Amino acid sequence: MKTALITGASGGIGLEIAHQLASQNYQVTLVARNEEKLQKVMQSLNGNGHSILVVDLTVKEDLEKLAGHIKTVRYNVLINNAGAAVYGKFTEVQIEDHLKVMRLNMDALVVLSYAFLQNASAGDSLVNIGSLIGFSSLPGAAVYAGSKAFVTNFSESLWFEYKNKGIFVMGFNPGATASDFHENAGNTAKEFPKFVVSSVKEVSDKLFAALQERKQPRVVQGWNNKLMLFGFKFLSRKAGIKIMGNLSPGIS
């Protein structure tokens, strides 16, 4: 039986992909901060042998604990899904909140990728969840946008390093998704135009399909998101930033 570990698995995209993998006979380890939510998710999954790990990835000791676990218990798939944003103009947000976003979106992702790839072998897969914002910008969430640009380039570089070993690395990039992510960041997905918002199932379906195909280092989810990126090619960078600033839930 194949095994998978998913961070940020108590809700949103992480929860949905956990269900999808479990339905395909994966044994899933769910990672998040909230034990009660994790227990409910685990009990709802198809199959047996699933487990939970209660970890706060912004806490150094917890991150080291999880990295040690990944080095000891070999997984076929690691999905670095945990991520966060804080909406608001840069200096109107506490600096510690910005740094926490960076620790989760970049530091934790690098540490867990490192632990996983040390023991990975042919056929294994690492999926790092980026964002459409990794190719653009988002005034009102500048640190988040910068962190996702990092994830995009980091993942593509790893794809090249490991492809000849049969180890698949993918940077997966959804757009705005109807989940509690935006509420946690300080706003709602309703702030975005309806046509750019995808459901968690749409995102999960694309992620699973790309994981099965094992072809592309960079995957953008959704025709709407691909269309937006294509359209931005015909704009100046300045014009594109202005558009994103006007759409941003972090600019009031």
Biggest sheet details: 7 strands, parallel
Give me the CATH superfamily.
NAD(P)-binding Rossmann-like Domain
Rounded Rg: 17 Å
The proportion of strand residues reads: 5-15%
Helix content: 40-55%
CATH architecture: 3-Layer(aba) Sandwich
Quote the average pLDDT.
90
Q: Provide the domain count.
A: 1
Order of helices and strands: EHEHEHEHEHEHHEHH
Terminal residue distance: 50 Å
Number of strands: 7
InterPro entries: NAD(P)-bd_dom_sf, SDR_fam
Pfam family, one: adh_short
GO cellular component, one term: membrane
Keywords: Oxidoreductase
Notes on the structure:
GO terms for molecular function: oxidoreductase activity. Helices cover 48% and strands 13% of the residues. It is of the alpha/beta class and 252 residues long. α3 (60-72) packs parallel to α4. The longest helix has 25 residues, at 95-119. It is globular, with a radius of gyration of 17 Å.
